Amino acid sequence: MNLKTTASRESRLVGGHRLCPGCGLGAIVRQILNSVDDPIVVVNATGCLEICTSAFPQTSWKTPWIHSLFENTAAVASGIDAARKSFLRKKKLSGRAKKLKIVAFAGDGGTVDIGLQALSGALERGTDFTFICLDNEGYMNTGYQRSSASPLGAATSTSPAGKILAGKQTPRKDILKIVAAHGIPFAAQSTPAHHLDLISKAKKAIETPGPTFLNVFSPCPTNWKSPPALGMEICRNAVETNFWPLVEVENGKWKINSAPKSRAPIDKFLAEQKRFRHLLDPENAKLKNNLQKEVDEKFATICKLAALG
Ligand SMILES: Cc1ncc(C[n+]2csc(CCOP(=O)(O)OP(=O)(O)O)c2C)c(N)n1
Ligand SMILES: [Mg+2]
Fold first, then answer.
1. Residues whose CB falls within 8 Å of the CB of residue 72, separated by 6 or more in sequence, listed in order
2. What phi and psi values does residue 22 have, to the nearest 5 degrees?
3. What's the 224 CA to ligand 2 centre distance in angstroms?
4. pLDDT in tens, the chain (309 residues)
5. Which run of H or of E encompasses 65?
6. What residues are neighbours of ligand 2 (ion), with CB under 5 Å?
7. How far, in Å, is the centroid of ligand 1 from the Cα of 142?
8. Helix/strand/coil (H, E, C) string of 201-220?
9. Which ligand 1 atom minimizes the distance to the CA of 149?
10. Of 119, 28, 107, whose CA–CA distance to 73 is shortest?
């Protein structure tokens, strides 16, 4: 993979959209869609990305694009895959169209909660597509209700931090493990600040036949209440604290792509985000320690899985 070639390709998502300053979504989508030259049809679940890039009568998409509901994103992709296979059998596709790829984008709500059933079905049926979870850790376009990807302790509008509870009381659902358990050819995790990692994983996912999956960490300054300029730094801190390990699972084999020599304490990830402000209060030390414990235990499990080769 050559970064220069990737960067010089015409972008399939152009400016003029309404994403918030510092939002990670634009950078993620451009990096992923620029990772290959082949034609791509995009399936886009409702969510920030869809709303902010497709306000009628305008669009920021320079590639075929279809808006789906939360529940059926992966099912819509399966339908497109079936049509593509039928056209190929009947020799109705020629030239570059024969190389058509299908990429589905959904938020964490559209992946780990509302769209999980259709995703699981498409993975099991062997739909030839790439499903991307854009994980901003909550239902953001409706004002940050908690999702099952919201971290333990996060203050959201449905798990506020106050006198009775200090934010969300349950840990995140581990979507990468859930997806990997389907035995698909390739699943991985990345962030938009780790360009080479994200682009090479996107290329591999899109070019690998069969179902593939990427879980991408996506900064949301508006709801994380973090400075818009620090989005990429927060991505790096997420990796340095092992909150968001850069890992991949290829044909059942787990691999850690890069890990910090010694992980930074979780405080480094929490510090710039006011949604975690209460966790730095000594009163909530126990909850913060539980979050640290969860991060360390999950990483230890990944190390064990990777050691199995
Ligand atoms: C079936 C269904 N359930 C709930 C909603 C309400 N709803 C609209 S946007 C949204 C949040 C989506 O969150 P996510 O998928 O993470 O996308 P984000 O807005 O964070 O990009 C929800 C729950 C809906 N439109 N349809
Ligand atoms: Mg979300």
1. 115, 118
2. 85, -5
3. 11
4. 678 888 899 999 999 999 999 999 999 999 999 999 999 999 999 999 999 999 999 999 999 999 999 999 999 999 999 999 999 999 999 999 999 999 999 999 999 999 999 999 999 999 999 999 999 999 999 999 999 999 999 999 999 999 999 999 999 999 999 999 999 999 999 999 999 999 999 999 999 999 999 999 999 999 999 999 999 999 999 999 999 999 999 999 999 999 999 999 999 999 999 999 999 999 999 999 999 999 999 999 999 999 986
5. strand 65-68
6. 107-108, 136, 140
7. 7
8. HHHHHHHCCCCEEEEEECCC
9. 16
10. 119
Residue 176: closest CA among 236, 245, 102, 127: 245
The CATH T-level fold of domain 3-308 is Rossmann fold (3.40.50)
Beta carbon of 24 within 6 Å of any ligand 1 atom: no
Whether residue 161 contacts residue 167, with contact meaning beta carbons closer than 8 Å, is answered with yes
Amino acid in position 197: D
- The whole-model pTM stands at 0.98
